[in-house]
Amino acid sequence: MADGKILTINMGPHHPATHGVLRLVLELDGETIVKVTPHIGHLHRGIEKIAENMNYQQVIPLTDRFDYTAASLNNLGYCTAVEKLLGIDVPKRAQYIRVIMCELARIMGHHLWIGSHALDIGAMTVVFYTFRDREMIMNLTEEVSGYRLTPSYLRVGGLAHDITPKFIEDLRAFIKWFPTAVDGYNTLLTDNIIWRKRTMGIGTISAEDAVNYGFTGPSLRGSGVPYDLRKAKPYGSYEDFDFQVPVGDNGDVYDRYLVRMEEFTQSLNIIEQALENLPEGPVNVDNPLIANPQLDDVQEDISALIRRFKIQCQGPVVPEGEVYHAVEGSKGELGFYLVGDGTENPYRMKVRSPCFILVSALEKMMLGHMIADAISVIGSIDIVLGEIDR
What we know:
Layout: E1 7-11, E2 23-29, E3 32-39, H1 47-51, H2 60-64, H3 71-86, H4 92-121, H5 125-145, E4 154-155, E5 158-159, H6 165-189, H7 193-199, H8 207-213, H9 217-221, H10 229-232, H11 253-276, H12 295-298, H13 302-313, E6 321-328, E7 333-340, E8 346-352, H14 354-360, H15 362-366, H16 371-381, H17 385-389
Antiparallel strand pairs: 1-2, 2-3, 4-5, 6-7, 7-8
Helix pairs in contact: 3-4, 4-5, 4-11, 4-16, 5-6, 6-11, 11-16
C-alpha cells in the first residue's frame, strides 16, 4: 500500500448497483479490495413468522414477495411443500400449466437480471430490449391472474382457474418472437469487447469452492457443476420434458452470464413442449375441503359460496408432520421447510434462500479485484434482497 493506510467505505444500501438494500463495507488498498463485509436486513419483514399466523392458503401471496422478479417459482415451492404434507397429487393439466408459468417466471427473472446487470456495468441499450420482452410475459401473467408482478396464481391442490384461449394465443406469439429477442441480447453483449473485458476473469470461483459455499442455480452451474433440481430431483412433471442444463468452464462473471443466456432458450423449449402436450382435465385436486369452487358456481349455489368462504378464511386442516421441498428457482435452490401441527396454520415455516448463500461468498469472489469490479460480481450472482431478508 502506497501510504500504509486502508480506506474503509460503504457501498450501498442506496447505491443502485447493490440491487436494492444490500450494504457492503469495503476495505480498499488504493482501488483494490482487501476485505468485504456484507450487511443485510434492511428489507426484513418477518414473512416466515407472519406465515405462522395465517392459514395455508393465505400464505401464498406472501411467497410472491420473496423473489418478486420470478414470483410463480416461489408459489410452486410453497404449494408443493403443503401438498406433500397433505399427501395429495395435483392433476396433470395443472402440473403442466404450473411448468409454463414457472418457466415464464424464470425468463422474466433473467430479463430483470441481464437488463440491470448490463446497466450497472455501463451497457444501457440492453435494458430497453429486456424490459420490452418482459412486458410480454407480464401481459400473459395478467391475463390468467389479474396481476403482473405478484400473481398468486397457484393454489394448494392446483391453480386458481384454468388458462384462457387468449393466454394460449399470446403465449404462442411470444414463443415465436423470443428467439429473435435472445439473438438481439447476444449481439449486444456476448462478443462485445468492453463487456468481455469487464466480465472475463472477474469474480472467479472454482467448482469446489462453489459447492462448499452452498451455491446452487446458475452461479453453481457457471463453475462447471451440472446440478439442476429439475433434472436431479424432478418434481411437478419436469421429468416429462427434454431440456439441457448449461454449464460454464471458468466460474467467472462471463460464464455466469453465458449460463443464464442459454437458460433463456432452454426455458422457452420447456414452455413449447408443455403447451403442445398440454393434457385435458381439471386444474384442481378433487377434494372439496381443499379446492375452491369456481366463481360461476359460487354465484348460483349458496353451498359453493359457503365452501369458498370457509376455504379462504379458514383453509384446509393439515395433518401433523414436517416436510422439506425445494424447486429450481431462477437464482438457485429455493426450499421450503414446513411443520404441520394438525391445524389450519403452519406451526413453522423456514425458507432456504439461494440468494442468502450467494451473498455470503461475495468476499471470496471480490478480493484482489478493483472496486469497479465489485459491481460486476454483485450483478453476476443475481441477488434479490426480498428473498435474502424474507
